[in-house]
């Protein structure tokens, strides 16, 4: 939905990332560590350049959420992304999704994921992939992904024993 904003008259809007969003996205990302990996500006800019879609969620003129999604064949040096790359010829990968505390529980994550599923389906991708921390635990995210229809395929320790992730997949019709 490049160049299009999803909104209603009373709620948040979801639009494409622009470079002027960098400071807010970085602050929001860092406020969600360790649920998401840390980012600095050079790494964010590189990741944005590799991404297929980077939506931001605005509420009252403030960015309260964002996601970064990639497709297969991206030169992205993530061991988790690489694991999905080895399993699937075509896929849509949620590198990260972050919402501010006041934006949680309002259905924004589901809205972002429904749009990701739509995009993946239109492009002929049959699976939406993500990973969620189990060590340190991220129980709210695991519950969210389960409710959204993701299935855990395995658990991995990509960065040593102090970190474990559940590898999740959702089939796309």
From TrEMBL:
UniProt cross-references to InterPro entries, sorted A to Z: Acyl_CoA_acyltransferase, Bact_Acetyltransf, GNAT_dom, UCP028520
GO molecular function annotation: acyltransferase activity, transferring groups other than amino-acyl groups
Protein name, entry field: Acetyltransferase (GNAT) family protein
Keyword terms: Acyltransferase, Transferase
Keyword Zinc-finger: no
Cited PANTHER family: AMINOALKYLPHOSPHONATE N-ACETYLTRANSFERASE-RELATED-RELATED
Keyword Acyltransferase: yes
Domain N-acetyltransferase: 12-173
């Amino acid at each position: 939905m490049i160049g299009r904003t999803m909104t209603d008259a009373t709620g948040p809007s979801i639009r494409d990332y622009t470079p002027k969003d960098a400071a807010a996205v970085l602050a929001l990302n860092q406020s969600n560590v360790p649920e998401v990996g840390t980012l600095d500006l050079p790494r964010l800019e590189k990741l944005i350049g590799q991404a297929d879609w980077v939506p931001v969620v605005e509420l009252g003129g403030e960015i309260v959420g964002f996601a970064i999604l990639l497709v297969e064949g991206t030169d992205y040096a993530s061991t988790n992304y690489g694991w999905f790359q080895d399993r699937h010829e075509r896929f849509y990968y949620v590198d990260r999704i972050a919402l501010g505390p006041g934006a949680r529980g309002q259905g924004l994550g589901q809205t972002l994921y429904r749009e990701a599923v739509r995009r993946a389906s239109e492009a002929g991708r049959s699976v939406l992939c993500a990973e969620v921390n189990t060590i340190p635990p991220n129980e709210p995210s695991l519950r969210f992904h389960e409710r959204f229809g993701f299935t855990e395929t395995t658990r991995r320790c990509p960065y040593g024993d102090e970190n474990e992730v559940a590898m999740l997949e959702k089939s796309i019709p």
